[in-house]
Each structure stands twice: as C-alpha cells, then as structure tokens.
Amino acid sequence: xxxxxxxxxxxxxxxELPSGCFWPPRPHPTVSxxxxxxxxxxxxxxxxxxxxxxxxxxxxxxxxxxxxLDLETGTTASGVTSDLSIAGAFICSSKTFKVGCRxxxxxxxxxxxxxxxxxxxxxxxxxxxxxxxxxxxxPFDHVLFRWVEQLRRx
Length: 154
Prior knowledge:
- This protein has 154 residues and is mainly beta.
- It is 9% helix and 48% strand.
- It is built from one helix and twelve strands, in the order E-E-E-E-E-E-E-E-E-E-E-E-H.
- The protein has a six-stranded antiparallel β-barrel. It has a two-stranded antiparallel ribbon with strand order 4-5.
- The two termini are 27 Å apart.
C-alpha cells in the first residue's frame, strides 16, 4: 500500500513492508516558487503580492478519463485530467464539488486504471477541480508511478 505523508512541505513516499513497518521515506522533489506580480485592482499605489506555488510535486501535462464519486452524497462527476503528479491531478469538468470534499477518483487511460481516495483542494467553477491523492492502494500505485515516470522522462 502507498502512503503519502507531509513533512514540512515535502512529500515522502513510504512502502509498507510485509512485517508491517515502513521503509524509511525518501523526500520527493519539491516545488517552492515565489512569484511577485503587481495588483492592478488595488486602489492605492501598485503593491507587490507574493504568491507561493503550494504544490508539493511537479505536475506534468496528462490526459486520462476521470470519474469522481463524492463519498458523502454519492454524486458523481466525470471529466478529463489536464495534468498529473504523484500527489494529485487537475480534472477538467463542468460539474464540480466543494473544496474539502472527499472523493473516490478513478483515472482511466487506455486499459490502465488508477483508483485513489482524494480530496478537492482547488475549485475553478465551470473549469474543473484540483485533487490531492490521500491514498492510492496497490496495484494502482504501480500504474500511477509508471505514468509519472514516463512523463518525467519526456
């Protein structure tokens, strides 16, 4: 089983060994860009705003069919991913869920499937949702690793 844990803005991946203990987690590459831009909507003089990229792993352009099942209400939404990382994805869909909503995400590409417990972190109405994977169970974790590894090499 794949367990993703946060340690001071670093995603660590740990594998559960047959003995029940975890192999020591290795830090994943982190992204911590700070972008400074002018705010044209301010009424006073232009001021700078620091916007921090909150992603913990690099996302790659990736298209896969996606189905999200709201675990609380049972409603579903379908769409297509626009990008993918080891820790999440952005799913383009006209139907969206609220931020913080827990979902069962199913990503399908060709004959490969990834299922994950996820939470909605970002919402863009009529565009889509950013989801963070909370738990990806085997054998789906191997498929997700393979997808991301292939994208990383391109």
